[in-house]
Amino acid sequence: MNIRTHLEEQFVLAMQKAGLPAEANPIIRLSARKEFGDYQANGIMPAAKILKSNPREIANQVVQNLEWQNFAEKVEIAGPGFINIFLKNSWLSDAATLALASSKLGIPALSRKQLVVVDYSSPNLAKEMHVGHLRSTIIGDVLSRVQEFLGHKVIRQNHVGDWGTQFGMLLAHFEDLQKGDAQHAAVELSDLEKFYIAAKKRFDEDKSFEERSRQTVVKFQSGDASALRNLQEFINTSLHHCEEVYERLNVLLKRSDVRGESAYNSALPGVVESLRKQKLLIEDHGAQCVFLDEFKGKDGPLPIIVQKSDGGYLYMTTDLAALQYRSQTLKADSIIAVTDARQALHFNQLETLGRLAHFLPKTTELHHVTFGMVLGSDNKPFKTRSGGTAKLSDLLNEAEERALALVKEKNTNLSIEEQKQIARAVGVGAVKYADLSKHRSSDYVFSWEQMLSFEGNTAPYLLYAYTRIAGILRKGGTSVDAIAIGPIEVVAPQERTLALQILQFSEVLNAVSAELLPHYLCTYLYDLAGAFMSFYEACPVLNASETSEKENRMRLAALTARTLKCGLSLLGLNTLERM
Ligand code: ARG
């Protein structure tokens, strides 16, 4: 059940019967205060304005035409023409009962399925993944999971940087190592970070090495077989590192989702040619550029360079080719690209030029999902204990270590294997959740204390809330998944609040999907856990006075747990049965 959609449908009907134009929107919102009911319709005033009639009068007519008795205890006209809706307990009970019996928690099927391409993670493969890649990877993963869960078809694209000039330096170093001892070269490569630093040092200090690096770029760019083989080996190693991180992060990217910059090489001359044919190109200092009125700097128009004077192509050229591929070959209805906010101008230019040059048809949406920085307690970009740019794998190691210490403190009776398993879920979950629970546009300060706390809007709190419900059901002789379906009846106010919160899951997922904001889901789950705690305090479950009441409450508890589990899994967090 999606309450909001249901109310919208009912109100649209009533508004039409009351003589309002078909396009009038009832604007159904959650009520700001309890006295205004559960939901309110705010669309009467704007509609009345169009008709130039009295909004309270119109509101009256709408209510008269509304079959509100089916779902509401009462509806009230308030202020200048708001309509407050007080939902009926029996209606909420029925909806909750259906949700428990449904495989998808009663979330309605989509009326319009879309094909959504999500470009996320997309690290440059010259180095190991670092903290800067955390956000792109996990935010993109949540958005993909939510779109998929709602019923859209999602194609993931890991647009890795696998073709830049940096690879010349790395490959030249690799070739030198191979000349000595091939096995040794492979071992060196396994620590990408060290490898990069060693190559960079030579590049900066040794002119002849620098020159050879440049030649190596020319070699692989012109298709030299042995250079390409080395490049491929390098990329495989690097991707392998990424996949280890994805696996630990519980992120769904696979090798088959990789479509790096190099995949677009052969399309690049065509991109430039097409721009030329459309008379969009201007030569500037030998480079091929597009000048658009929309983009002006302090000193005049900003060029969008698509080909350098030496014939080389750029990040923009590749992205134009990717746009074409995604909209025309993959037939995307919507493209979502997740990168940090510093690429805002790039994506702005990409969309404007892409539309102008017909690489991106009107029917394909493009969304650039940006995010802020992860900061240390000094408010500067986050660093690890050792002070270097934080490697993502080191960060996850530390998270697990810290979580293990916590788990050991709390649970001395679990085996070390169990403790480790819990620590993995809690540690990595804490890092992810702390990030996802904040508005993605803001920078945030990375704090182990905050993210590992069992109080507040954190992963440990939510994971614990789930295990607590699982424990209650276990004691009651059943489980979250195995509980027999049956009616849920909402009576006590805390039962009502909890059921209403559960039934808002669908709305929240729609909001995450429409606004591409994962933190909505986190706030929702935190509130859900809170609603459960209040319910549990006020309404004894296993000690309820009657069996029917006990069973009813167990079903409500199970529905809560399922909703929590589902929501957490959409965030890429695995729940635990015990902790
Ligand atoms: N590799 C780029 C980086 O690390 C991100 C790529 C994002 N996707 C894209 N289509 N440009 O900054």
Task: Walk me through this protein's architecture.
By secondary structure, this protein is of the alpha/beta class. It has five domains: 3-87, Gyrase A, domain 2, CATH 3.30.1360.70; 88-108 and 453-579, Isoleucyl-tRNA Synthetase, Domain 1 (Orthogonal Bundle); 115-161 and 264-369, 3-Layer(aba) Sandwich (Rossmann fold); 165-249, no CATH class; 373-426 and 440-445, no CATH class. Helices cover 53% and strands 12% of the residues. α6 packs across α9 and α9 crosses α10. It starts with a helix and ends in a 9-residue tail after the last helix.
Write a concise synopsis of the structure shown.
The protein has helices at 3-17, 44-51, 55-65, 89-101, 132-150, 166-180, 182-190, 192-205, 207-221, 225-249, 268-277, 315-329, 344-356, 392-410, 416-436, 448-451, 459-475, 493-503, 505-515, 519-538, 547-570, and strands spanning 28-30, 39-41, 72-78, 82-87, 115-119, 153-157, 282-284, 287-297, 300-307, 334-340, 365-371, 374-375, 444-445. It is of the alpha/beta class. α4 crosses α18 (493-503), α5 crosses α19 (505-515) and α9 crosses α10 (225-249).
